[in-house]
Design goal:
364 residues; mainly alpha; Amino acid/polyamine transporter I; 13 helices; globular
Amino acid sequence: MHDRAKISGLQVVYLLINVVGATALVFLPGVTAAIAGRDDWVAPVLATLPGFYVILVITALGRCFPDQTIVQYIETLLGPWLGRIIAFLYVLFFLHINGVILREFGELVAATIMPQTPQVVFAILMVAVCTYGLYQGLEVVARVMELAYPVMLTLFVLIIILVSGQMKLVNLFPLLEHGFKTVIRASLNPIAWRGEVFLLGMLFPYLARPDLARRNGFIAVAAIGLILTINALSCNAVFGVTTGRLNFATFELVRLAGFGPFLSRLDAVWLVIWIVGIFGKVALFHFATVMGTAQLFKLKDHRPVIVPLSILLIDLSLSQFENLTKLLAFITGPWVPYAYLFEMGFPTLLLLIAFLRRKTRTQT
């Protein structure tokens, strides 16, 4: 049932950065700027602390159950009946959110370069590649991220440098224009996105160095915070208050990047590399869905459920939302408490139960 390939600490860092950054980098600037205006860059900073908390909780649980995923130790802690129900809800959460991620991918590609192409084409192509990756094993996905992410980060830095000439610091002032309460409200969405690092709870049995999981998780959360803050500052410095009216502010920023005739059309390069990042995120959530299903139903081999769950994922991505407007309404509304429950609420409860059980055994 288990894919026994081990992933390195560096691969874990890249996987966790990507599982948040692949979509947050694209959607968050517009979402947070619509609430906090020119102060939206503060939201990723505030979201970093809850991200550290998620890592603390998940790694504490991982140390208690180093050979189990979150789906497995839920049943250990809550018993066969309640534990199986909550574990099943987690599998549904992985599948549902992956459907949202897949639709986010399709909407951006359709809005930017292929407006006449049906969403089903994007969904089938991405899921087909991810399905092949899962058949090859988690280590293959991790290696792709290890190779691709340095290129992504290098291109990101290059884009920021190239658009720096169009930045106006006046667009960043006055600070806290709408008050600190507005900034806190704007940070609720980035916190939900940052909490996606809880997927580390599905990776513990596959880590080459589980003893370094907490350190690697902290590095990833800090890096995500830095990247998203720089991105938000850059979008605001270039677009000002209009950032909140842009669905894909980062992509608009990339379109402005260039240096004469020798360095142009970086938007096409960025889009290709971003698709690789989306592959990493969809594949990781799909891995969690597949392994969670296999563990929930005590299957000896997880591969027979890959294709059925892949078909279900495609259907879910197409049927959830009629258009981009409804997708954004979900991201800015129900997604926030929904994510908090599974990323922070249940894990905190599980850790409390594990602590009480250990304390009881020590006393007896």
